[in-house]
Amino acid sequence: MSSENLTSSVADTNAGEPAAAKKGNPAGKVANWADERLGLATLAKKNLRKVFPDHWSFMLGEIALWSFVVLLLTGVFLSLWFKPSMAEVEYMGSYDQLRGVPMSEAYASTLDISFDVRGGLLMRQMHHWSAMLFIAAMLVHMMRVFLTGAFRKPRELNWVIGGLLILLGILEGFAGYSLPDDLLSGTGLRIADGLVKATPVLGTYMSFFMFGGEFPGDDIIPRLYIVHVLLIPGLLLALIGAHMLLLVFHKHTQWPGPGRTEKNVVGYPMLPVYAAKAGGFFFIVFGVTALMGGLLSINPVWKYGPYDPSKVTAGSQPDWYMGIAEGLLRIMPGIETHLWGHTLSWNVFIPGQLMPIVLLMIVLSWPFLEAWVTGDKREHHLLQRPRNAPTRTAFLAAMMSIYGLLWAAGGNDILAVIFHLNLNHITYFMRVAVFVVPVLVFILTRRWCISLQRSDEARLLHGYETGIIMRSPEGGYTERHLPVSEASAYTLTARQRDQVYDAGADADANGVSRDGSRIARIRARLSRGMFENNVQKPTAAEIEDAHHHADEVHELEHAMEGHSADGHQFDGRHPVDGEELRNH
Amino acid sequence: MSHDDNLPEVPADERAAMAAEEPLPNPGIEPHTPRPTDVDKKAEKRAERQVATFFGLSMICTILFVVAYFALDIKDDPDTIGGLGASNVALGLSLGFALLLIGIGVIQWARKLMADVEIVEYRHPATSSQEDREATLAALSQGLEESGIGRRPLVRNTLLGSVALLGIPAVVALADLGPVATKSVRKRTLETTFWRSGTRVVNDVTGLPIKADDLEIGQLVNGEPEGLVHVPEHREGVTYLEGAALQIEKTKSAVIAVRMQPDEITFSRRSPENWSVAGILVYSKICTHVGCPISLWEQQTHHLLCPCHQSTFDLADGGRVVFGPAARPLPQLPITVDDEGYLVAQSDFNEPVGPSYWERDSE
Description:
The complex is a heterodimer. Chain A is mainly alpha-helical. Chain A folds into 4 domains: 3-47, no CATH class; 61-312, Cytochrome Bc1 Complex, Chain C (Up-down Bundle); 447-503 and 534-583, no CATH class; 504-533. Chain A is built from 20 helices and 8 strands. In chain A, a hairpin with a 5-residue loop joins strand 7 (464-471) and strand 8 (477-482). Chain A is globular and about 90 Å long. Among the domains of chain B are: 36-112; 201-345, Rieske [2Fe-2S] iron-sulphur domain (Rieske Iron-sulfur Protein, 3-layer Sandwich), CATH 2.102.10. Chain B is 36% helix and 12% strand. Chain B has 9 helices and 12 strands. A 5-stranded antiparallel beta sheet of chain B has the order 2-3-4-5-10. Chain B has a 4-stranded antiparallel beta sheet with strand order 6-7-8-9, with no helix packed on it. A two-stranded antiparallel sheet of chain B has the order 11-12. In chain B, helix 3 (41-71) packs antiparallel against helix 5 (86-112). The longest helix of chain B has 31 residues, at 41-71. Residues 1-8 of chain B have low confidence and may be disordered. Classes of the chains: A mainly alpha, B alpha+beta. Strand 4 of chain A pairs antiparallel with strand 1 of chain B.
């Protein structure tokens, strides 16, 4: 059924049949019925063949999206049996070891889901695994977007939305992790209570409002439940919707290459290829999650027992995405200020509240900071290779090194046990390393990127290494280089030249700086720091020169054609025709 | 506004010079290379059969899922197949493959059989056209003009005021989320535990009271005040708590009783000798960092380590912090023995236990 049929069916007359839908075509009839009420054809004609560029790294965000769908599906299943109540009950279910033990209804119903609802354990484990996958995929997707500069204009707001999605995803994960009310998650909530109480001035009030009085009380599970199943999922859904709408509106970024420009997008149409690939990928993510739920045990709450605030197990760890907060808490020295009958716990406030906010602010504001330093107001739809933005790439590598160190610090007790190290030494090491290592990683990554840029330039100007070693008449050896293909050469040059911002431009004719020139100088210094050492792509003249040089080499090589260089003809015992060089 | 106007923030002449500097011309999209399935009828048929096989296998897996659901009783087998449960493994495998095979089939279909010609679509700058902007501004100002919001500040300001004021009930209505932590509320909640003068220290598992002689040198026992551990026969005159009240009191009242050589203990103003009985000291079990129960005892060094964030306290030296993120020593419970020889509290803790909070007087 063609769209002309649909759009021409204007209801200009009530007499007779609508224009479209041949008789005996039920799908056509339904489409016609819907279009007369919703005007779907106009909407769909633009989007059914919408182009999406193809690259494996564009799949990372898709993993996050599909695992969110899996979370919704498995979560609905779990909510049919889970009882968000802290009322004390005696467990009478199938799990022998805990039968007769007093516990909260939340914990008892989690045991029921695990042992008395068929498929319940599978759904619980799938729910937990897809939550892991959701947050991990969002983080890796964010790194991809960051490394390739996909957050630049006009996508800054989508970057901010993405940052909020990660924050909400982590909060949602923590809320869900706390619901079973087992010993491990209860300990997590106890730590959260400690973090809240460390808030200057308001901490005690906030803690009492959260828990309905003293920790743990009997309000927190029902409250976290509604936050977990309605409030945050609603926000996530709205933000994911906005994220996707903006993606469609901006059209996806693409890698530079032949025929790919800032003004077009080259790829496969939504229908059929992209719809099939993305739709198929949903089943793959869902299927992998089901396999994980069936084969990989996660959060076996029956082994931990019900929450008891006077008990804890050695080696207690939060879910991995809380690992950096855990690491910060563990390596922070114990500093408190006691003044006028008040206590300010720097040891909890800084790692538990200040640092996460600072980290989030850096993440959310990066596109704006970078745009300010570069002064770049252009739209960018072509992605950058990480090496072509050395400072940015190095910044991310430094952040990743902090993340990794804090993660390790969050498991300092486990490391001490596994590697037979002194726990205190690990902690002291981490206290220093989180400041030193990122700086080293930054410098190293930046130089590494610039080296890669140089190697790209060499490939462009002098061709690639063929592995063929040429021996010259003088006995010198050289490796033969051949020019890279036209497409690769173009791809290597399809990037913009960095422009170092010059603060001098802001001074007036007499060289006297205008107001705000201090900021301009800072901006200029940052800009120099970011770009000064980068390798810029060669100009047309430079490429011309290089080709000229290559031609000379080729001529030389050409002159030797026919003289297979096995070395024997130059041993002095054989005459070599036309080999003037030998007589030199 | 044309696309070009939206591009660089550099002057036009400079831009032209930059364009001229472009080292290589854009060679355009590579020509499409046909796949085997595009040119070879046999390969095409083969791919078609492959895809259909994937879908067919998926159906079998779905049927297996239903069979496993009814055939395997989870009650009996939570520990079979590597501790994962036979039902769980069977359901996970069958559902997983049922889904995966659909996904693999569809993607194989897309890769082998659907058209793989790349197509081009043109981008438009995100910004609206100048006409659209002007029209919007005109509509906006006309709308605002007709509403008179600019001309009638009295109406505007009272409206803003009344709507803003509505924020207050939204906040006030949440006040019953919990008690307001005023000084008196804090006094009877955070700053009071279940310990009273004469409350027995009981073993936190058996609920039995502890005699001084029961403890050997170097031994550490996790304790609770009597009434927080349920025993078959309740002792007269003791309140036994349940449910939330029990959990709240356990959060504050859990203790550790430890016996050390008296000459190894450093008594001080914080930890006077008359708070102990024959080298037995009782400390709060709740970490002063963020409130985990501390439980890892190093007998040789008298150190007690918190398994959550590894704060370490020296129990022979008034619960002093020797390592880790905690900033304050563990509160000590003054104890004595009652006439039957059991360890009892002299009084409640003389400072709040657990993590710090703003109003805590820690000086």
